[in-house]
Amino acid sequence: MKHSKDPFEAAIEEEQEESPPESPVGGGGGGGGDGSEEGRAEIDQTAEEDERPVDVRRPAKKSKTSVAVAEARNKDDDEEEEEENMEVELTKYPTSADPAKMAKMQTILSQFTEDQMSRYESFRRSALQRPQMKKLLIGVTGSQKIGMPMIIVVCGIAKMFVGELVETARVVMAERKESGPIRPCHIRESYRRLKLEGKVPKRSVPRLFR
Amino acid sequence: MSNTPATAAASSSKSKAAGTSQPQEKRKTLFQKELQHMMYGFGDEQNPLPETVALVEDIVVEYVTDLTHKAQEIGSKRGRLLVDDFLYLIRKDLPKLNRCRELLAMQEELKQARKAFDVDEKELVD
């Protein structure tokens, strides 16, 4: 399914700093239970949808942010211009209807280093592609019609799952006192831990042929 | 172990050692590029290792497949597969559940906005 033919999203593809026709109301403040672990700030996200050139929705899971944010220091950066641009985009979309949350977000974002900002940008902008997901869902269900809401929801769930995987893998690496890029062994251990926590759906019938 | 093309992604096989078992066959990746950006956003390096990305993709495909199968089981009781089946499955996972609600609300709003936009355009033309 093609991502966007509608005027809003097409226009935004051209100019990424265009303001939305209306500012959507957020779905509610951070609902995640483990939102403030390790000093991570909650990031709420609404209406990022308009902003995305590629696929919608992005990332901001309520309780998860990138590890870089967790290490946030109060460093002022010379890259004010860059940050400003980012902020301009992000301020146009209230993170939630709550002005206090917005203000909190603003203070956090203004203190990001360039590195953190780039990571945060990737976090917000990345998304699994809807046509691919649709293909996958049609293949799994066997039915020919999959509604848009379903694709969007599954993309969102999958993205959060990737987040859990990567973050748990980083935890595993910290425990093993390793550094560098994440390796498959870390992901496997992370996956095993998520299974133990029950976050991975278990197959009622074991997978026979791989 | 033979690799089947990932068109019916449910049956795509995964090799345990994240490399291809036969040199001639190409693994069909669904989400590779986006996954790289996503993993960077979540804490990996700017360029994650390709084997890591491949493994994460396999895991995600399996996750979506299993989740969808379970949703179908639930949905079969009432006839069709609905979004609510997925929401039911993640009801215990609050961050995901809230995120999904947010996404659905946003989508609804965008739909309304588009409708309003189209109506306005038509009025302008007339």
Automatic annotation (TrEMBL), chain A:
The gene coding this protein: LOC104731504
Protein's cellular compartments: Nucleus
Annotated region described as Disordered, given as residue ranges: 1-90
Designated name of the protein: Transcription initiation factor TFIID subunit 11-like
Record-annotated TAFII28-like protein domain positions: 108-193
Keyword Transcription regulation attached: yes
Family matches, as SUPFAM superfamilies: Histone-fold
Pfam families: TAFII28
Family: Belongs to the TAF11 family.
Keywords of this entry: Nucleus, Transcription, Transcription regulation
UniProtKB/TrEMBL annotation, chain B:
Designated gene of the protein: LOC104760001
Low complexity compositional bias, start-end: 1-21
Protein name: Transcription initiation factor TFIID subunit 13
Similarity comment text for this entry: Belongs to the TAF13 family.
Subcellular location: Nucleus
UniProt keyword Transcription, yes or no: yes
UniProt entry keywords in alphabetical sequence: Nucleus, Transcription, Transcription regulation
Source superkingdom: Eukaryota
Entry-linked Pfam families: TFIID-18kDa (PF02269)
Primary localisation category: nucleus
Segments for region (Disordered): 1-30
